[in-house]
Amino acid sequence: MQIYLVGGAVRDRLLGYPIYDRDWVVVGASAEQMIAQGYKPVGADFPVFIHPHSGEEYALARTERKSGHGYGGFVYYASPDVTLEQDLLRRDLTINAMAEAPDGSLSDPYGGQEDLQKRILRHVSPAFAEDPLRVLRVARFAARYAALGFSIADETLALMQQLSTDGELGYLSAERVWQEFDRALGEPSPAVFIDVLQRCGALDNLFGEFTALQGDPAWPALAALLPQLPSSCERFAVLCCAALRIASIEADASRQHIEALCLRLKAPKAFRDQALLVCAQYAGLLRLSQADGDTRLDVASGLDLLRRPERIASLARCFDTLAAWLNVDAPAAQHSLQALHEALTATAPAELMRQGFKGKALGQELKRRQRDACARIEL
C-alpha cells in the first residue's frame, strides 16, 4: 500500500498558497484492507474512505469510463493494480494531476509543475471533454489564479467550447452549477469566471442573465470593483443589479428576473433576498440626498431597516460599489442607512399610544413622524 497527497494541496504548496484541505490517493490497496485498518467508507459511486483520526479523505486509485451524460455518467474501476499514473490521468488539469509521496518526492507524469511555472491551465487528456462540469471548474480556476497571470491553453479552451455546444452542459444539475458559481464568486477575480464562460460559449446556456455584461463598456470597471466586496452574496447582488441595468430591465420586472434566476440555480434564500433588496432600492438610495421625506421613508421601509438593522453594513457595501461603478457622487451608504434607521426608531409607538393615538390614527401618526424625521436627515 502506498499513500500520496494529491491534487489541490500539492498545487497550492508549489504556488505558495495556503492549504486548507488535503486529499489522498491510495495505491495497491483494496477496500477490505482499508476497512481493516480502521478507515470508514463513504459514498456509493467510488471507494472513498475517511481516516480514523484525521477525518481526511483517502480514495483508492481508480480509472473511469464514460457511461452516460453529465457529471455523474461514469463507471469507476478501483483495484490494487491501478497505478498512480492511471489515477492522475483521469484528473482535469495538469496542475491538479501531481502527487507527493511521504518523503516529499513529486510524481508529475503530465507536466503539471511546468504548467504552473508557465502559468497555464491545460487539460491532462482528451477525456477532459467527457465531463461538462470541468467547463465550470476551469473557469473557476481561471478566476482564482488570474492575478498570477494564468491563462487557459488554446487546446483546453477548444474542448470547453466543444462541451458547450454539444448539449452536455444541459445534463448538469442545478446544485452542481450553483456550487461552482458560488465558489467562483468567492475567488480573487470573480469576473474572470464570467469572461471565460463567455469565451467558450457556456455563459448563455448556464447564466444567460449575465450575458448583457459582456461587451458592455462598463463591464471592466465593475469587474475591478467586485473583489472589494467581502462576500459571495454581496458580489452576486451587485452582479444581478448591474446585469439588469445594462439589459435595460425595468425595476418592476427585475424582481421576476432575479427570482427566476435563483429558482433555476437553486440559490440560497440569503442570495436571493440580497439581490432583490439591492436591485429594488439602489436607484432610490443613490438619489437619497435630493429625495423628500416620503421617498426616504419608502427606501427605509423597502429595506426593512426597522426590523433588520443587522443588514445595514452588507447592503451599504453593495450600494457603495454600485455608486462607484455608476460614477454617482452619493453619500456613504453606511451613514445614510444608519441615519434612516435612527429616523425610524426616533418615535416609539408606545409613546404615541400614551398620547392617545390608537388604531388607524396611530399608524398614520407614526408614519407622519417617521417621514418628517427622514426629511430632516442631512446627507
Task: Provide a descriptive summary of the structure in words.
Belongs to the tRNA nucleotidyltransferase/poly(A) polymerase family. Keywords: ATP-binding, Magnesium, Metal-binding, Nucleotide-binding, Nucleotidyltransferase, RNA repair, RNA-binding, Transferase, tRNA processing. Residues 149-211 form the tRNA nucleotidyltransferase/poly(A) polymerase RNA and SrmB- binding domain. Its cofactor is Mg(2+). The protein is an alpha+beta fold and 379 residues long. It has helices at 8-15, 31-36, 84-89, 112-118, 133-145, 154-165, 174-185, 190-199, 203-206, 219-225, 232-246, 251-265, 269-286, 293-302, 312-326, 333-345, 349-354, 359-375, and strands at 2-6, 23-27, 40-42, 48-50, 57-60, 62-66, 74-78, 99-100, 106-107, 120-121, 151-152. Helix 15 (312-326) packs across helix 16 (333-345). The radius of gyration is 26 Å and the shape is elongated.
What is the C-alpha radius of gyration, as a whole number of Å?
26 Å
Q: How many separate domains make up the residues?
A: 3
C-alpha termini separation = 69 Å
What amount of the residues lies in strands? Answer: 5-15%
* Oligomer classification: single chain
Stretches with pLDDT under 50, minimum 5 residues: none
Overall structural class, as computed from helix and strand content, comes to alpha+beta
Quantity of strands, as a count: 11
| Morphology | elongated
Main sheet: strands, sense, barrel: 7 strands, mixed
Helices, by number, come to 18
- Give the fraction of residues assigned to helices: 40-55%
Strand order of the largest sheet: 3-4-5-2-1-8-9
- Strand and helix order: EHEHEEEEEHEEHEHEHHHHHHHHHHHHH
Mean pLDDT: 94
